Amino acid sequence: MSARRSGSGSLAAFDAMWSDLESVGQARSGGYRRFAWTAEDHTLREWFAGECARRGLELTTDRVGNQWGWWWDGPGTVDDAVAAGRRAVVTGSHLDSVPDGGAFDGPLGVVSALAAVDRLREAGVRPQVPVAVTNFVDEEGARFGIACAGSRVLTGQLDPARALALTDADGTTYAEALRAAGRDPDDLGPDPQTLARVGAFVELHVEQGRALVDLGAPVAVASDIWPHGRWRFDFPGEANHAGTTRLQDRRDAMLGYADLVLGARHVATQRGCVATVGKVHVTPGGVNAIPSHVTGWLDARGADEEQVVATVAELTARGEEMGATVTRESWTPTTRFDQGLSERLRRVLDRDAEVSAPVLGTGAGHDAGILATAGVPSTMLFVRNPTGVSHSPAEHAEAADCHAGVAALADCLRDLTTG
Ligand code: GLV
Ligand code: MN
Ligand code: MN
Ligand code: MN
């Protein structure tokens, strides 16, 4: 990957890092395929390690594979600082993507975090607590099905034995993928020692909706994450010839699946939630064969937890009537970010601003939410996305807004580490 640097300063560094990443895992669609523990992921992890080394940040990798680059110029080691009650302020996000995802979901937070460290150093800031930049592994769960796997295992919210047994579309287990990436699956587990270093976590992220466009503001502070989860519906059937099998003799697994897709839209509409069936696996998958098995994955979310739970219960009952086996793959209840931290960051952003930074909730899951659930004071900053689109190549953020995000993040880090 190119190590080109144009001009100087943190914003030039941001631009150079951004162009470094442009070609990694780019798909024909113009979007990105950067799945956990693949060759693309390896390239991104090496890139992250290189950026930490370039800055003299001490790189550590926790028991899950999440990467941390530590900046501490104070007396003793980071652990000495932590033992003395100076826990780190951490910022970062993830570098993996959904299938054909946008360039910003994840990388914007990592690149901005590194650029924010540069900016603080340019300004001669000397943090009173360690600062760390992090790259969480497998945030999207695109390969193995469970989103935020890296932060969930780290914090004890995902059993390592369960994680190791997850399989990808080719039948490769998480354990095998770890081994192929040079990691020992036996090492996978919660890492309370690393977690104990973290005093606060701030994740900068591209906005995944239109609120900031409509409000005319470049940066917002987060308040909460909607409850959300993923469920697997397995519909049984019987393979047979598409031309010679009478309709009344068929057991077509696709019918139950079709009912799930339409039911999800209908029930979610009635209950004021959102529900999506975005992934399907059809067996045997021949145009001229009646499906013997269909697996569909339901993603359900909403502002009102009770309504999300009721939506899924209704769809589960309906699926079971169609013969489905329904398995919950993940569930994240309503997550509230640390209100004091969010308010503090908002005050920082409002210092020189004409209009107050908006405070937004989101329907998207994030590692910051998993850390918040684990008791780490956490919050997020959102950067305006003019298309309002995410998990698609159309996701976007203008350079000026990205730079505003870096400045905002640096101001927040400065306040949190010197205030
Ligand atoms: C992850 O981005 C999710 O919210 O699905
Ligand atoms: Mn995402
Ligand atoms: Mn993300
Ligand atoms: Mn996400």
Automatic annotation (TrEMBL):
Keyword set includes Hydrolase: yes
CDD domains, alphabetized: M20_bAS
Keywords, sorted A to Z: Hydrolase
Family: Belongs to the peptidase M20 family.
Species assigned in the record: Ornithinimicrobium pekingense
Alphabetized Pfam families for the sequence: Peptidase_M20
Domain of life: Bacteria
One term of GO molecular function: hydrolase activity
SUPFAM superfamilies: Bacterial exopeptidase dimerisation domain, Zn-dependent exopeptidases
UniProt key word Hydrolase: yes
Protein name: Zn-dependent hydrolase
InterPro entries attached to this UniProt entry: Amidase_Cbmase, Bact_exopeptidase_dim_dom, Peptidase_M20
